[in-house]
Write a structure and sequence with these properties.
This protein is mostly beta strands. The protein has one domain. It has 2 helices and 22 strands. The strands form 3 sheets. The protein has an 18-stranded antiparallel β-sheet that branches. The chain has a two-stranded antiparallel ribbon with strand order 4-5. It has a two-stranded antiparallel ribbon with strand order 15-16. The longest helix is centred in the last third of the chain and has 11 residues. The two termini are 32 Å apart.
Length: 327
């Protein structure tokens, strides 16, 4: 039988030991594609032949998974932070909601140890073929949204080596709840402590949060062509916000011109106590020229996360759902 588009799927499993593949227990509620990033080299040589002779070798292996933009949910978004920031244990509450809090990095010298990062085994394919790889971690991810739509999540996952395999069977499709952008609220304050508490009402039109986790593969001569381990370099957090052009936008442009540190917090709520809270300390990097949306004047600014000693950090995100443990 030929492959059928509707029978594609992506399955994930959290590894106990980084790089040791496990069976999947998560079906990703979205779309994406595995790509094989192995380096195939065809040497240049002078051997008296008019045509190439097909000499080639593989210098290294690397796997990737592009998770396309899909509706962010309270239940599956934490997996991206587990793979890109750190693996955390939730704190429970009396109303049976559980909060997962991810911090990047907390102090100016704090780098999360690789043992604190959750790596995943990835399975992907259709009814004809399955490919898989281990040691999956998030190199970059984004959250975007605009009024009247769901918040959208996407990510680039890196792993060791793409290999043929078979899907783990019997994995259930999880129930999820979408994070709706219009259920969000924006807060901006002078530097103090997370979270910001001054509400910016009826101003937030759109946002785009980009996270470069800083995690990179390291290749060494250890007898294998795939990477030996991963290490964290400088993470980058960038938030673009589109405002109504009013006194709030004017005040934030003034803070940009004076390079005044600010705290920006975003809070999205769902049912049964579910929530997504994002806190960023930093400075405005730039503001676009005055824009227009349906005859309405708007302005967009780019805010960059920086460590702030008063806050004691740069970025954190907390997700509350009804799961006392992620799969």
């Amino acid at each position: 039988m030929a492959g059928i588009r509707a029978l594609r799927k992506i399955q994930l499993g959290r590894e106990t030991t980084a790089g040791t593949k496990v069976g999947a227990d998560i079906i990703w509620r979205g779309t994406g594609s595995i790509h094989d990033n192995m380096d195939l080299v065809f040497p240049t040589e002078d051997i008296g032949m008019l045509v190439p002779v097909g000499r080639s070798y593989i210098s290294r292996y690397e796997a990737g998974l592009t998770l396309d933009a899909t509706e962010a949910t309270f239940e599956q978004l934490p997996h991206l932070f587990e793979m890109g920031i750190e693996s955390v244990t939730p704190t429970g509450t009396t109303d049976s909601t559980y909060t997962y809090t991810y911090v990047m990095p907390f102090a100016s010298t704090d780098l999360v140890a690789s043992t604190d990062l959750a790596t995943y085994t990835v399975e992907g394919g259709d009814n004809v073929d399955e490919e898989e790889f281990g040691f999956g971690f998030v190199r970059s991810m984004s959250l975007t949204g605009s009024a009247g739509q769901a918040l959208m999540m996407s990510a680039e996952i890196v792993g060791r080596q793409v290999e043929p395999g078979t899907f783990t069977t019997g994995v259930a499709i999880a129930d999820v709840e979408e994070i709706l952008f219009s259920k969000g609220k924006l807060y901006i304050d002078n530097v103090g402590a997370f979270p910001a508490t001054t509400p910016i009402s009826n101003q937030l039109l759109g946002m785009s949060l980009s996270i470069n986790t800083g995690w990179l593969p390291v290749y060494t001569a250890d007898g294998n062509l795939y990477f030996s381990f991963i290490k964290q370099t400088t993470p980058e957090v960038t938030l673009q916000i589109t405002f109504e052009h009013d006194t709030t936008a004017v005040a934030e442009k003034a803070a940009w011109r004076t390079q005044t540190p600010r705290i920006i917090s975003l809070l999205f709520t769902g049912t049964d106590g579910k929530s997504l809270a994002i806190d960023i300390a930093g400075k405005w990097q730039s503001f676009d020229v005055l824009g227009e949306q349906d005859g309405n004047d708007i302005v967009s600014g780019t805010f960059v996360g920086y460590y702030n000693s008063t806050v004691g950090g740069m970025f954190q995100v907390a997700i509350s759902n009804l799961l006392n443990a992620l799969p």
